[in-house]
Structure formats: C-alpha cells, structure tokens
Amino acid sequence: MQFDPVLAESDLILSGIWLTIWLSASAIVLGCSLAVLLVALRTLAGRWAGIVVDAYVELMRNTPFLIQLFMIFFGLPLLGIRMSGVEAALLTMTLNLGAYSTEIIRAGVESIHRSQFEAGVSLALSRRQVFQYVVLQPAFARVWPALSSQFVLMMLASSICSFISVQELSGAAAIVEQRTFRSFETYIIVTAVYLVMALSLKVFLLWLGRKLFPQVSGLSRLDAKAEAA
Amino acid sequence: MPAVLIDDVHKRFGQLEVLKGVSLNVESGQVVALIGRSGSGKSTLLRCINGLEAINSGRIEVAGHVVDQDQKKLRELRKDVGIVFQSYNLFPHLTVGQNIMLSPRITQNVPQAQAEKLAREVLAQVGLSEKFDSYPDNLSGGQQQRVAIARSLAMQPKVMLFDEVTSALDPELTGEVLLVMEKLAKDGMTMLLVTHEMSFARNVASTTVFMHQGKIWESGPSQDVFGNPQTPELRNFVSAGRK
Amino acid sequence: MQTFGWPEAMFIFRAAGWTLLLTVISFAIGSIIGGAFAIMRLSRIKLVRNFAATYILVIQSIPVLMVLFMSYYGLSIIGIELPPFFAASASLAVYVSAYLAEIWRGSIESVPFQQWEASSSLAHSPAQTYRYVILPQAIRISLPPTVGFLVQLVKNTSIVSVVGFVELSRAGQLVNNATFQAFQVFSLVAVIYFAICFPLSRLSRHLEKVMNASRSH
C-alpha cells in the first residue's frame, strides 16, 4: 500500500474536512431552529398545522436523504430556483435534520409533566410563553442525548452530498482517488478522518450538553416527585 | 363585592359529576379553609377558580374578573389570583430568582432592576433571601414550597389559592410553610386553601367549609365547624382527623 | 430527448424489486454477523468483548458510504471480485451487522438480571438459559428497534450505486439523466421508498406501543 500519493493531496482533503464541518454545523443550527419552530407550531397552532407538520416529518423520515438531495438539486432548478451544490446540500441537510429533530424535541415536550404547564399558565403566562420559557429548555435537556446521536448521524450522512459533486470530505476523496488511482488508501485515510470527527463531535456534544443544561440531573428527580404526588 | 363569588357551580369529568352545585362567597381579607375527604371536589373547586378547570355551569367571579375560558381574560384574572400547588412546580432550569422574576418580567413588563428588587422582597418575606441564586433542586421541599409562594406573591395578587401545599412535605417541613401562610393571613391577604392540616384550618382560617360528595355539606366560623359539627359526616371526618 | 413514460416507469419499478432483494439479503447476512457480535459483546472474555465493542463503535462512527467503499475495496484487495449485487449486499451487511449487534446487545441486557438468577437456580446451563429464558424475552424487546432499523437500511440501499449496482435510486438517476424530468422521476422514486418505509415505521411504532402496554402490567 502506498499512502504518499494520497497524502500529497492533503490540501484537498483538508478543504473537504472544512466543508464537512461547515455543512454539519450550519445544518445543526438551522435544522434545530426549524425543528423548534415546527414543534411550537404543532403544540400551539391548530389541528391542521399539526397534521401538516406530522406529514412533513413522516415524508422526510421515510424517504432516503439521497432522493431528497436529488429532488432539490435537480428538481428546484426546473421551478427556476437555481442553487449551487453546496446550497442544495445545506438545504437538504437542514430539512432532513429538521424533520428528525422535530420528532425528537416533540417527544421531549410531551415528556414534560403537565404540572409545569399548569404552573406557567397560573402565573398568567400565555401558552406561547409557557412553551418558550417553561417547557422548551427542560425538553431540550431531556432529549439532548437523542439529538446528539442524530447530529452525528447527519454529519456522517453529509458524505452523500458527494453524489452531486459537493467537495466535502467524501467528494474530495473521490477527486483524490481519481488523481492518484489509490482507492483503498484514499478511503482508509478518509474513513479514519470521519472516525476522528465523529468521536470528537460526540465528546463535544456531551460537553456542550453539560454546559447548556447543568440542571439535567435534577429533571429526573422532579419527575419522581411529580409521580409520587 | 366579595373577593370570590361562587354561584351554583357544576363540574363533570365525563360521566362523573364532581361538583354538584357549589355556592360560596369569600370576602376581601378573609381566610377560608376547604376540608373534606379526597374525591370530595375541594381541589377541583380551587382549580376552577383560576380557570385551570372549566366549569360546566354556574358562575365564578374572583377579584373582579368573571372566570371564562377566553385565554386573554384568563391571563388578566391570573395576574390577580395566585395559586400554590401540592408539588411546588418550580421551574427546574431557572434559579429561584429567575423563577420569581419570570412572570413579572414577561407578563407585566416590569424592568429587570425593579423585578429583581421585587423578587428579593418577596423572598425575604418567606425567609429565603440567601437562596436567590440557587436552583430549585438544591432546596428542601419546604424551601421549594416557600419559593413557590414567593413566586405567586411577586405577581402582587389580590387572592391566593393554596392546593394542599403541605401534603407532599415531610412532617418536619410543614411547619415552616404553614408559618409563612399564617403571616400572610395576618397581613390581610384573601386566602382560599384546601388543606389536611386541621389545626391550621381551625386556628388560622376564619371560615371552614366542609365538602362532601361534590357539595358544601357544612360551613361556618372555624371554631363552630370544628367545635360543634352538625352532620354525622363532618363529625366522622373531624374525629378521624384527631387520631 | 426521451420523455418520462411507461417504459421508464417500469424500469424504475423493476429496480425497486432489486432494492427490496438487496434489503432482504443484506439484512439476512448482516443479522448473522450482527448476532455473533452481539454475543461477543456480552462475552466474559474481556478481549472478545472489547473487540466487538470497537467494531461496533467504528462502523457506527463512519459514513455508510465509507463502509461500502472500505468493504468493497477491502474485498477486492484480498482478491475477492464479486458481481455488483453481491458486492453491494456484502458491503451493506457489514453496516447492518454493527447496528443490529448494538440493538440486540441492548435488548439482551434489558432482560432483568433476576431472570438469569432464576434460570440458573433451576439448574439450567448458560446455553439453556440463553435459549429458553433470555432470548425469547430479548427478541420481543428487540422487535421495535429492529424493524425501525430496517427502515434505515431500505433508505441506505440508495447509495450502493457507488459499488456499481443499479437499484431504485440509481435507476431514477439514469432516467433523470435521459429525460431531465427530475420532479416526475424522483417523485415516483420517493413515493416507492415511502410505500416501503412508511408501513415499516408504523409497524415499529405499533410494536413499541404493544410492548410498553404489556410491560406496564
């Protein structure tokens, strides 16, 4: 095995790494924002809004990421919406992660005990204010582990964007492979990079969870009390 | 005009009628205890007063507001009517101070500095000034319940409702909470409380209402209700409580 | 230029058959390997346990696309040249094995420990305990997440074109390249995937509900 020719292309690989990180980070922020919006809509708006949100979530969860990507990259231009590969990739990742996160955060919101809601409205908060100030953060804290796994899966799935020639890490690997004819070596290196990135992201999200939600441990105790009451 | 006016209120959960025509007036500054077995409808009645449960028929007025299921009107009503729950229901992700300031800040647009001053005042009132920056989980049950009372007081309510606020507490922690409530009563707060603490009802409440099977079975000045019960049901209830 | 008509649609439907077959075969092979790893993961021998844990962690921490590339090129480097369908199945099976191993390990571990004690106090051997006491319960517990994973597998078969096999997604791509009618083509493809995945998703959720209901008794 010869790694030297592959390592000679490390600039390309590095730029691929950056694009993967940028795409993933942006999709996580945008996807989560979308999810919070959709969960709010589902919780606060009428029945029809809920049905629409559920339909969107089911549609995204039961079709492959690749087909969603193709729809957006090849389909939207036919409607006159032109976008670059990177833009299509980011949009697809956001919509996809948004759907999965909606499902997860919804479960978190439903797990918050009714008594918290009652306490909120009894303090003259509107339903929207209860959602925003009382329910949302504990719900997030409770589902943070599930969300974290989904973020890592999204980062890994971003490799599929290479199908529309986006030069994130996998796309960069394809070019390196064509230039060097060292397929196995290229993919060993790139796989190792993904492994490091995934493990780092896991550790980072664990740390971030502790930072953002220092009261997580208390939530389970709160439930126990509510059950006992 | 009475602070709380309840007129022929009926409430059903599905087939089950839990309130079968309840009428009651509470004057301003009065402290009224609701007693009775579990299932007698006393907690439901309390929850109807601030609109947590919708009534099926009858009329409730409290602090000048008619109880209605219109969300806007309910919010106005709830600014004037505080409620404290059995399970405290503090918000676990907010500090004690933030718990207290939340509602004044976002429902009454009180500026931050003023809200903080207010929060410190009510916290001092319940004797927990040093806990301003603590999280609820680091407090004992009794302390949490006192914070819950302070949180309601920060709304500067005209009427306070207490729903079995000591029932979830260990016996040695009930005293501190009852003391806070007694002080409130002395300061002239209009209070309606569901309680199992018979001596508290007898000594602090001016009026005691005994509920049974969804109806007000007997009511009157606390001394009379406890000292000279008229009905066998209340006699049984009072003597069972003494054991 | 071709337009998107019946022949193209039929081509896509036939490819959907390959997607299903690919799912079944890779699931079958993957479940055998995955089962072995699940048991290794619970072995009393530390080395075996760690090996299995590392395998699972690594496969779950790299893109499915990379699993495909690595198994495909890995196989060819040790001299095994498989026809595209088998290359795709074998590569997917590696991916399947790691996820199933983790799901099944969790299921076996969630059988209450008292069951082991009860069984061994009835003088059952460890193998008998597994066979008659633990596995029947673990399988029930594992059903909802296993069916749920099947949905992920169906969706992930969409990328096996990288090892040269034409299934539903690749067929859609080919038709799109010929017709440039992306909306019609990929809508049909998406509808077919949805028709396969949605019932499985519902089944998974239904099984979970049944399981929760029976557990609370």
Number of helices of chain C: 8
Report the top-level CATH class of chain A.
Mainly Alpha
Percent helix of chain A, as a range, is over 70%
Give the end-to-end Cα distance of chain A, rounded to a whole number of Å.
66 Å
Q: Indicate the low-confidence ranges of chain C by residue numbers.
A: none
Overall number of strands of chain A? 0
Q: What is the radius of gyration of chain C computed over CA atoms, rounded to a whole number of angstroms? A: 21 Å
CATH evolutionary superfamily of chain A = MetI-like
How many structural units, i.e. domains of chain C?
1
What number of domains of chain A? 1
Structural class designation of chain C: mainly alpha
Q: Any idea what the radius of gyration of chain A is? A: 21 Å
CATH fold name of chain C, please? MetI-like fold
The 3D shape of chain C can be described as globular
CATH-wise, what's the superfamily of chain C? MetI-like
CATH class of chain C: Mainly Alpha
What is the distance, rounded to the nearest whole angstrom, between the alpha carbons of the first and last residues of chain C?
Answer: 64 Å
Describe this structure in words.
- The complex is a heterotrimer of chains A (229), B (243) and C (217).
- By secondary structure, chain A is mainly alpha-helical.
- Chain A has helices at residues 4-7, 10-44, 47-61, 65-75, 85-111, 114-122, 127-157, 169-180, 183-212, 216-228.
- Chain A has 10 helices and no strands.
- In chain A, helix 2 crosses helix 5 (85-111), helix 6 crosses helix 7 and helix 8 runs antiparallel to helix 9.
- The radius of gyration of chain A is 21 Å and the shape is elongated.
- Residues 217-229 of chain A have low confidence and may be disordered.
- Chain B is α/β, with parallel strands linked by helices.
- Chain B has a single domain (4-242), classed as P-loop containing nucleotide triphosphate hydrolases (Rossmann fold), CATH 3.40.50.300.
- Chain B has helices at 42-49, 71-80, 96-107, 112-125, 141-153, 171-186, 198-204, 222-227, 232-242; strands spanning 4-13, 16-26, 31-35, 57-62, 65-66, 81-84, 159-163, 190-194, 207-212, 215-221.
- In chain B, the strands form 2 sheets. Chain B has a 6-stranded mixed β-sheet, with helices on both faces. Chain B has a 4-stranded antiparallel β-sheet with strand order 2-1-4-5, with helices on one face.
- In chain B, helix 3 (96-107) crosses helix 4 (112-125) and helix 4 crosses helix 5 (141-153).
- Chain B is globular and about 55 Å long.
- The model of chain B has no long low-confidence stretch (mean pLDDT 91).
- With 217 residues, chain C is mainly alpha-helical.
- Chain C has 8 helices and no strands.
- The longest helix of chain C has 36 residues, at 6-41.
- Classes of the chains: A mainly alpha (229), B alpha/beta (243), C mainly alpha (217).
- The A-C interface holds A 58-59, 61-68, 70-71, 74-75, 78, 152, 156-160, 162-163, 170, 183-184, 187-188, 190-191, 194-195, 198-199, 202 and C 58, 61-66, 69-70, 73-74, 77, 151, 155-156, 158-159, 169, 172-173, 176, 182-183, 186-187, 189-190, 193-194, 197-198, 201.
